[in-house]
Amino acid sequence: MTTTLPRPSRPSNGPPTIALPALPVSKTRKSTGALPSPTNKSAPNTPRSGLRAPSTTFAPPPSPAPTSALPQPRAVSTIGTPARTLRKTVSINSFPQPPRNETRINSLPPSPLGLDASRNSARKPKNPTTPSYLHLSNSTPSLLNNSGEGKSISSASVRMSDGLFSVSSPPQSRSSSAQDSYSTSATTYDDLADGAASRHAGDSSEKRSSKTDGKGNVLVSVRVRPDAGGNENNKTEGEWMVDGRRALISCRGKEGGDYHYDNVFSTHDDNGKVYDHIAKRLVRRVMEGYHGTVFAYGMTGTGKTFSMQGTATSPGVIPLAITDIFSYIRETPSREFLLRVSYLEIYNERIHDLLSMSTGGGIGSNAGQDEIKLREDAKRGVYATPLKEEIVQSPTQLLRVIARGDQARRTASTQFNSRSSRSHAVVQIVVESRERVPGNTGGESKRSGMLPGGVRVSTLSLIDLAGSEKAAESKERRTEGSHINKSLLTLGTVISKLSDHKDKDGKSDGKEGKHLPYRDSKLTRLLQGALSGNSLVSILCTIQIGSAGSAAAANSHTTETINTLKFASRAKNNIVSHAKKAEEALGSGGDGGARVLLERYRMEILELRQQLELQAKAKKDRKALEEEEKVAEEEKARELEAEYRHEEQMLEMQLARTALKERIDHLNRLILSSKSIGVNSGSFSSLGVRASMLSTRSSVATPTSGRPTIERSSSLTSASSTVGRRSSGGGQRLSGGETGPEDDDSVGEFGDSVASLAAQNRALQADLADKNRYIQTLEKRLVQARRASSSRASTGFSATSKGILVGEDHSVAALLKDKDAEIIDLRARLDDKDRILAALRTAARSRDVAEGTTDGRTSQLLDNMPQPPLSPPATVTPGTGALDTRKRRKSVDEMSKMLEEMIHERVENGQIIRGTRGSVRVADHRRLESLPEPAAELEPLA
Ligand SMILES: Nc1ncnc2c1ncn2[C@@H]1O[C@H](COP(=O)(O)OP(=O)(O)OP(=O)(O)O)[C@@H](O)[C@H]1O
Q: Which residue intervals define the domain Kinesin motor in the entry (predicted)?
């Protein structure tokens, strides 16, 4: 297989670089050419290093001791450069190895290449009695080695301490990218590194390496993909030899050599193991506040996506990292976390948001998206914007988000991969964390006045690069390929030049060094922070060394593989990380604060909680108000109902009263009629007497007193007719059967008057009886009404009803009293009538005596009437002529006088009042006192 990438002219001291991109720096080449020598890798500093057959029996050869079976790598001849060799040795040995593997690896047989002996022999003089991996582990601790992890993960108490980070980056190493450093807080791990270095002051080379080496924070691993043909015996695949235990890959070809890395994974190693070695610790560090970057680099089809994403049965780095992230959160109750994730791809040098795109990854699938640009600020470094970030709360949710992005990622079938990634894909997980205030959760901290600590923000970038490839047949693939190759070339260039930015101690020297072309591609721009040392870095390079079925393919693979191996070596040599734990941002202000969602959310939660409390209070007040209103409404309703019932009762009473009143009016009319009858009958009787007198007078022609007499006569006629009518009407109303006799009685002159009086008397008595009955009926109805009211009053309106009943009682009592008074009045009038009748009888007898009549019809008629106690009748003596007339006149005069006296007497007694025209009427107080008095006016007799 051939590569389209330009081949740089290779220095003689480097490993084969036939297929490498044209890297610009010869110095880099030298550096790169100094591939890990067996000697340099010989000193294990971790359990796994120890497994690489640490032995005190090995001599420390200054140069590698390649096996005779392998071609002597040119790199070996250059490893004699002390500084380079030392640095490489220290950095590689400082890489972590999983503690669990220690036993297993210790039991492994020595490397067939015999490189362990030379490496370990190189360590032996320094500490012949102590396993070299332990020695180096102490001397060059790194954020990614076991010592660090042991402290940070084993227990919460250790996690809580900042001293747990025995990071090896010396202060000098910071200078390489100090201008971009996120960290302004503790330099704990630097100090510790210095301390660690000083413990080995006796070994100047080691001390130097510990100072210069930020590479303790950079892991470079190589993974060999199984051959598609099924030949997995990768130990000796043609000219290649892979030794996972010693992290060695040897090539026996013309550009061959020995390549040492932090980890070499054979075809037998699964994704779990790969993750454990390349990313597990880094993920932990990210959770503790460091930035971390893991990326996979390699030729197309060599297993980058397989390693990063994995499969359902063999999850890759990304899903395993997610699992660990949430495990860490669970294990760390002392802090609270907020995770947000973004997912972008760089396709044809354009950035696309995979979380905002529709799935399918086709052209135009991101139509409508704002162009995503890269920006840089002091706090965040280089970042893409605008980019969708999703907050995730569970591994499942996070995996789902990433799976959605994967769906949107552009893939296509290529010569080497049926589903080749055509873009660089970057998953970025931002971890915000804050220490919980003991005993307080949520809003309680505010209430207690204790503020929690600041928020720490760190980022984990998981990058699956597109694979380098030769020109494809289709134009589209060629375009994609050219962009991919260009960006990968820029990446290689930047990494190569990184060594130029370091002084002899490995410190970055931006002024003197060459320009770093980060801006030449979006990929390098995005990786700028990681490459310049602000992040812990783990690079997984994937290769395929099988023949893949054809000599051409095998050849192509070899070239590409060697390119990849060289890239890995340069990365290991040149990238220096001095990552620091991110500072804790207090408050929500400022640039840093603006992106600290945890703080913003906390503030938002507080605000919302306050709003909630206010709302709850308002709701409570409103409820109380509503209750009051409800009570008031109920009260009002009750009042209205009571009022309504009262009105009903009043109406009933009114109706009853109206009925009573009507009846009373009717009775009054009857009474008045009776009175009129009584009075008029009295007048009539007297006038009747008088009429007879008048007729007598007429006969005696006494015109002197004619006028009044005539008037009186007229009046009598009128009154008589009135009485006749009223009496008739009243009789009809009271009892129809009684009208007959009355009508009969009303015929005739004197006889008629007397009969009428008798009829009137009967009528009055009947009326009286009728009234009594009516009064009884009224009393019954009142009792019934009272019962009805009291039953209604029992439904809750007792107070009001009482008032009604009391009023009713009063009105009924008054009514009864009125009626009683009227009855008494009526009786008194009857008495009056009786007296008048008696007077009339007397007058009639006197007349009879005076006229000498013997029939006594008038007096007899009158005698038939009830006899009131009257004065004894005057003695009448018969006479003739003028004497008789004189006697009659005298008799009439006497009678008139007697009547006048009687009236006068009553006027004096105050029983009656004399009117201005001589009329008389019953005194009011007499009425009230129920004294018998005629209600109608009595015409004066004289
Ligand atoms: N270690 C491995 N074990 C088993 N199968 C593997 C391994 N590595 C890769 N493969 C298989 O090889 C094929 C190509 O792998 P993958 O797509 O991961 O390559 P790649 O490097 O991502 O390619 P590209 O750059 O074109 O995207 C896949 O079918 C994958 O399953």
A: 217-574
